[in-house]
């Protein structure tokens, strides 16, 4: 994973607990930092002597010429609190080139309707997707269902209203607040009854071609289930988790992690490293312990930074919320979740 030092060009307070951070990308790096709507960047810095990496979705459109992310402070969030209270214009962070598979690519010749369900900071990649559709597909429409506690807690509240005012005929917004009764907004959360009501009533006459979901796992799972009940094909539902998945006691992971050892060969940037690792370790943990510069960020199985291909041997993942069945069949794994199950294994980070 290649990192580049970028200076902070601008910081804006979006809510009491969220800021947007814009980076000054020099002309020599413009091509490397070109991105697709919905992608993220990994930020790296040192806080209290610890090397910290965090992924944040880009909230601007590709044609805007700006690289901006939103960071919401969360409880026990080391970097998110640092970003909201300490970072300032001129500070330099290490930034990885854009990555991610939760993407939208515009086609000016198309006429379609895209809908998105977002909750909290899940709006950040959706904002990029919304702007891209409205700017680059003049005949397409965008529907946004966006859940928050109150208007003052809503990231991009005023920006979304301005976008709606500019594209009134093509941009529909349904705000949902769980702690505030507001005009033209629903009260509650994005849950089964809410999604059912919107599809059966508000948007019953809209032929929606594609859905994008971003936010907590519970919201995404519920919305996906309702959409599938309405006959929406799985291939037309794209999602990205914004919190680590929760494993309930009733759905305990049945993956068995072996107690043996494996001879592993890891390929990164055309360099091969071979050593013996415990099968109790994840492949990524073993790589980091050997100081191999393997790409990673969240280490929780919710980003795609650590994807690699198993070209020899086999591994099992403790959880997977990203890779499709066909990608698994091709040998792709999330190395932060993958444990070897064979005496030897070859893992190629370059072949993805």
From TrEMBL:
Signal peptide: none
Co-factor requirement: FAD
The UniProt record lists the keyword Oxidoreductase: yes
Residues covered by the 2Fe-2S ferredoxin-type domain: 262-352
Residues annotated as domain FAD-binding FR-type: 1-105
Sorted UniProt keywords: 2Fe-2S, FAD, Flavoprotein, Iron, Iron-sulfur, Metal-binding, Oxidoreductase
InterPro entries recorded: 2Fe-2S_ferredoxin-like_sf, 2Fe-2S_ferredoxin-type, 2Fe2S_fd_BS, Beta-grasp_dom_sf, Cbr1-like_FAD-bd_dom, FAD-bd_FR_type, FNR_nucleotide-bd, MRET
Pfam families: FAD_binding_6, Fer2, NAD_binding_1
CDD domains associated with the record: fer2 (cd00207), PA_degradation_oxidoreductase_like (cd06214)
One Gene Ontology term of the molecular function aspect: metal ion binding
Keyword Transport: no
Protein name: Ferredoxin--NADP reductase
Species for this entry: Formosa sediminum
């Amino acid at each position: 994973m290649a990192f580049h030092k970028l200076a902070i060009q601008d910081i804006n307070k979006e809510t009491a607990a969220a800021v947007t951070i814009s980076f000054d990308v020099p002309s020599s790096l413009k091509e490397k930092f070109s991105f697709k709507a919905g992608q993220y960047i990994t930020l790296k810095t040192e806080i209290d002597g610890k090397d910290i990496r965090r992924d944040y979705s880009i909230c601007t459109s590709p044609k805007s010429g700006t690289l901006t992310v939103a960071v919401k402070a969360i409880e026990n969030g080391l970097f998110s609190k640092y970003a909201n209270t300490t970072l300032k214009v001129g500070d330099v962070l290490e930034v990885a080139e854009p990555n991610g598979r939760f993407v939208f690519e515009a086609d000016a010749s198309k006429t379609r309707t895209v809908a998105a369900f977002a909750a909290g900071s899940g709006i950040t990649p959706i904002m990029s997707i919304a702007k891209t559709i409205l700017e680059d597909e003049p005949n397409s429409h965008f529907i946004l269902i966006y859940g928050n506690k109150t208007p003052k807690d809503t990231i991009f509240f005023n920006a979304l209203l301005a976008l709606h005012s500019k594209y009134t005929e093509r941009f529909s917004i349904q705000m949902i607040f769980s702690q505030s009764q507001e005009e033209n907004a629903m009260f509650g959360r994005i849950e089964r009854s809410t999604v059912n009501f919107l599809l059966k009533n508000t948007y019953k006459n809209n032929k929606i071609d594609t859905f994008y979901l971003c936010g907590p796992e519970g919201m995404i799972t519920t919305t996906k289930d309702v959409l599938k009940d309405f006959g929406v094909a799985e291939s037309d539902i794209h999602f990205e988790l914004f919190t680590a998945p929760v494993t309930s006691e009733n759905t305990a992971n049945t993956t068995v992690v072996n107690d043996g050892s494996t001879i592993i060969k890891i390929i990164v940037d055309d360099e091969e490293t071979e050593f013996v690792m415990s099968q109790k370790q994840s492949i990524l943990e073993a790589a980091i312990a050997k100081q191999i510069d393997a790409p990673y960020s969240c280490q929780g199985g919710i980003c795609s930074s650590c994807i690699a291909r198993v070209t020899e041997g086999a591994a099992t993942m403790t959880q997977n919320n990203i890779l499709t069945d066909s990608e698994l069949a091709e040998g792709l794994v999330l190395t932060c979740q993958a444990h070897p199950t064979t005496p030897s294994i070859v893992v190629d980070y370059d072949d993805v």
